[in-house]
Amino acid sequence: MKKMDSGVTAAIGFQAAGGSAGIKKGNVKDMALLYSIVPCVAAGTFTTNIVKAAPVKWDQHIVYDCEAAQAVVCNSGVANACTGEEGYRCCRETAKMAAEVLKIPEDSVLVASTGVIGQQIPMDKIIEGVKMLAPLLSNSREAASLAAQAIMTTDTRQKEVAVSVEIGGKTVTVGGMCKGSGMIHPNMCTMLSFLTTDADISKEMLQEALSEVVKDTYNMVSVDGDTSTNDTVLLLANGLAGNPVINKKDGDYQKFLEALYEVNTILAKKIAGDGEGATALFEVKITGAQSREQAAALAKSVITSNLTKAAIFGHDANWGRILCAMGYSGAKFDPEKVDLFFESAAGRLQIIENGVAVDYSEEEATAILSEAEVTAIADLKQGKAEATAWGCDLTYDYVKINADYRS
């Protein structure tokens, strides 16, 4: 597998564009368009929140009920959530305009929005935005970058990645871009992720692969415990790589799955590390578990603990908070067998052994916890299963950002 300096335009046949449609205040990028030169099979996963934004409902229809997808229109600034029938009508009008300018079927256009909940989408700006972006579509690196910038809200940096892998004697590429910084919690988050691949793969296997990967990537991310109304992951495959079609779980499927997992793991970590107000990516690894489910429950519980997140911000090795969060996770384990370590670029240090603190250096612990990426590793010593979750520290700036988000 080869990692590439690219994004959604890395795979053959995909083009993108990003620019300003005037949805946000100031001349900032707020609309993106993604397009495949040929129809694609599509897969998707969506928010588990009962309150679903209009674009989520529209995309579920396209992914689950329609034959193909070929374009995605995304705006930032307004979420088009809690907007009733008018909100859904806006999705249809957006798709209709994109279909007209791109000369593709209306039911092959996916729509996504992110931003403030409860406001009606400014359709005049969306329509003009689609018209503006269509002529700018390109497969260039710059086009991918502009699109990634245009979908950001409180994100401080764009999030992109691409990898290539050989399948059936052909080079298959998987690329992606995402956004997410706040309202992030397991079972999807205020995140949008758009993934592209030139793999030739059946719709059934594409959905199977995406669903399998999401549970160990995006669903293992938490910034603040809030599950959004707009969470959407879309995966488009146009088959232009020319590999033998992947229509069963064989070796080729496993290679594709590994590439997809790599892309989504990188993107998930980028979301966690760019949490609102964050100064550090906080990773929690549970090893020696009896099952993946046990390990995942424990890792998620630690990553969502506000007390633990605050301790990471303070570079404080307050290990009791970690053990406490594990204890209320609902997963059964023996706390008197747990070994706990902190690890970063500054080194690795054991903090507890068999549930009891060891004689460690507080200065060394502080140095390790002062890095931009910090990992806590808990070994249950009960089995061979493991799981990893990602989050960030909890800072003063998180409150500042969300206290005046609408202003």
UniProtKB/TrEMBL annotation:
<feature type="site" description="Involved in the stabilization of negative charge on the oxyanion by the formation of the oxyanion hole">
    <location>
        <position position="115"/>
    </location>
</feature>
<keyword id="KW-0511">Multifunctional enzyme</keyword>
<dbReference type="InterPro" id="IPR042195">
    <property type="entry name" value="ArgJ_beta_C"/>
</dbReference>
<dbReference type="GO" id="GO:0006592">
    <property type="term" value="P:ornithine biosynthetic process"/>
</dbReference>
<keyword id="KW-0012">Acyltransferase</keyword>
<keyword id="KW-0055">Arginine biosynthesis</keyword>
<keyword id="KW-0808">Transferase</keyword>
<feature type="binding site">
    <location>
        <position position="153"/>
    </location>
    <ligand>
        <name>substrate</name>
    </ligand>
</feature>
<feature type="binding site">
    <location>
        <position position="179"/>
    </location>
    <ligand>
        <name>substrate</name>
    </ligand>
</feature>
<dbReference type="InterPro" id="IPR016117">
    <property type="entry name" value="ArgJ-like_dom_sf"/>
</dbReference>
<comment type="pathway">
    <text>Amino-acid biosynthesis; L-arginine biosynthesis; N(2)-acetyl-L-ornithine from L-glutamate: step 1/4.</text>
</comment>
<feature type="binding site">
    <location>
        <position position="190"/>
    </location>
    <ligand>
        <name>substrate</name>
    </ligand>
</feature>
<comment type="pathway">
    <text>Amino-acid biosynthesis; L-arginine biosynthesis; L-ornithine and N-acetyl-L-glutamate from L-glutamate and N(2)-acetyl-L-ornithine (cyclic): step 1/1.</text>
</comment>
<dbReference type="GO" id="GO:0004042">
    <property type="term" value="F:L-glutamate N-acetyltransferase activity"/>
</dbReference>
<dbReference type="Pfam" id="PF01960">
    <property type="entry name" value="ArgJ"/>
</dbReference>
<dbReference type="GO" id="GO:0004358">
    <property type="term" value="F:L-glutamate N-acetyltransferase activity, acting on acetyl-L-ornithine as donor"/>
</dbReference>
<feature type="binding site">
    <location>
        <position position="276"/>
    </location>
    <ligand>
        <name>substrate</name>
    </ligand>
</feature>
<feature type="binding site">
    <location>
        <position position="407"/>
    </location>
    <ligand>
        <name>substrate</name>
    </ligand>
</feature>
<comment type="function">
    <text>Catalyzes two activities which are involved in the cyclic version of arginine biosynthesis: the synthesis of N-acetylglutamate from glutamate and acetyl-CoA as the acetyl donor, and of ornithine by transacetylation between N(2)-acetylornithine and glutamate.</text>
</comment>
<dbReference type="InterPro" id="IPR002813">
    <property type="entry name" value="Arg_biosynth_ArgJ"/>
</dbReference>
<keyword id="KW-0068">Autocatalytic cleavage</keyword>
<comment type="similarity">
    <text>Belongs to the ArgJ family.</text>
</comment>
<dbReference type="GO" id="GO:0005737">
    <property type="term" value="C:cytoplasm"/>
</dbReference>
<feature type="site" description="Involved in the stabilization of negative charge on the oxyanion by the formation of the oxyanion hole">
    <location>
        <position position="114"/>
    </location>
</feature>
<keyword id="KW-0028">Amino-acid biosynthesis</keyword>
<feature type="binding site">
    <location>
        <position position="402"/>
    </location>
    <ligand>
        <name>substrate</name>
    </ligand>
</feature>
<protein>
    <recommendedName>
        <fullName>Arginine biosynthesis bifunctional protein ArgJ</fullName>
        <ecNumber>2.3.1.35</ecNumber>
        <ecNumber>2.3.1.1</ecNumber>
    </recommendedName>
</protein>
<feature type="active site" description="Nucleophile">
    <location>
        <position position="190"/>
    </location>
</feature>
<dbReference type="GO" id="GO:0006526">
    <property type="term" value="P:L-arginine biosynthetic process"/>
</dbReference>
<comment type="subunit">
    <text>Heterotetramer of two alpha and two beta chains.</text>
</comment>
<keyword id="KW-0963">Cytoplasm</keyword>
